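Example record for the data management plan.
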Amino acid sequence: MVAAWRGWREMRGSGRQGGSMSAAAAANASLGNLTDEEAGDDESWESVLKLVLKTLALVTIISSAVFGNLLVVTSVIRHHKLRITTNYFIVSLALADTLVALFAMTFNASVTISGRWLFNQTVCDFWNSCDVLFSTASIMHLCCISVDRYYAIIKPLEYPTKITGRTVAIMLACAWISSGLISFIPIFMGWYTTDEHLGYKLDHPDECIFVVNKPYAIVSSSVSFWIPCCIMLFTYWRIYVEATRQEKMLCKSQMGPAGMLCRNSTDLPNVHAPPHRNSHGDDPESGQSTPTKRTINKMKREHKAAKTLGIIMGAFILCWLPFFLWYVSVTMCGDACPCPDLVVDLLFWIGYLNSSLNPVIYAYFNREFRQAFKETLQAIFCSCAGCED
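Corresponding structural encoding:
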């Protein structure tokens, strides 16, 4: 989900050195022709098999990202109980991941499969800009979600007044605008790279090589990854501490079988749903030493939602941390930090894979999303098959 921050490897032809062969050498070469042809056929089939497997893998990742994230958007639109504050961020995140698949993965896949850039320099700049824009927007959305969960659990009484519809709109606008400021503007203005590379682009319009200067590398990686990650780690650490404290309080307040259940598991059947629209701050007794049943259920719903979103954040960091470590190191030390092309390809596509993971996480950890997905898929299949209710 991050921009193509690398120089695509050059296509180098193998030169032939002239020279005469002795008769013996010619005879030996003639005797070895059959073996060479057989080896060449084996290599050809192996290359074709690798290309087919690579193409299938990339198409699967792209298709699953588009389908899964559009399923998230459609499910939230169709199901009223999913239209809560936190899910507005999730819908916007799903849109960003869908655009990553359409405008970043597809171009990257074309280069990975064909081994060369198939378009012009304008499309190259557009691709790199979209890649930076949507990847940055994704982590900005995760940062917004962590702030939303922070207020919901750490400051529940302030949540209704702090996280309003207007606040959510402003946060989403800031996420997209800040992403645009470090993508399209510096890339199309040429601020992201060196003067030498700008000259190289003019001389080689059929190549798409994305070389960044150190200031842009520091600023872009900080805005796109490091600063938001620090914010998310801090907020989720505070959420974990507070959730642990609240669970201990709930366990102490519950007696008998309920207390035993609390000690054994906090994943009750009715806590898989995300928090209800008006569940924050509605209960003045939420600060009492003996919470009511309604307050207990509310806390558990919040904890479950925070856990699911924490897993989403963790998946994003695991997918993109290796790439950003490589990106910063190779920018700072240049040729002194070589990295095999295969490893670079894996770093990119492991990151892109994250765009396909979020819908799977929702379906596995959130009961209401899982049910909404089932109903949405049933409606789609019935519509395609022409079945009647």
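Summary line stored alongside the record: Residues 56-383 form a domain with the Rhopdopsin 7-helix transmembrane proteins fold (CATH 1.20.1070.10).
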